[in-house]
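Hi everyone, sorry if this is the wrong subforum. Our group has a chain we'd like a structural model of before ordering constructs, and none of us has done structure prediction before. Sequence below.
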Amino acid sequence: MNSLNKVENKMKQTVARNFKQKRKKAGLSIYRLADTTGISSVTIQKLENEGHFSPKTLAGVCYMLDIEPATLFLEEVDA
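Answer:
Right subforum, don't worry. Here is the predicted structure as tokens:
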């Protein structure tokens, strides 16, 4: 795996971990968040498990969680 792939994978893992922490802190299940955002639960699961997201998906879930998208990219965030 080249260095660029390692950086990309680390970024995805960081976003996935931070998003899951923020969702749980907000007291929302994946299904409740999906229902309130109109984003499918499968898409939200991909974000949480794989760090796979589109800008539109990230913006939508961050809006509902009342967080800045940039905070998901930080190594250490408050849970």
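For your construct planning: Residues 3-25 form the longest helix (23 residues). The domain at 3-73 is CATH 1.10.260.40 (434 Repressor (Amino-terminal Domain)).
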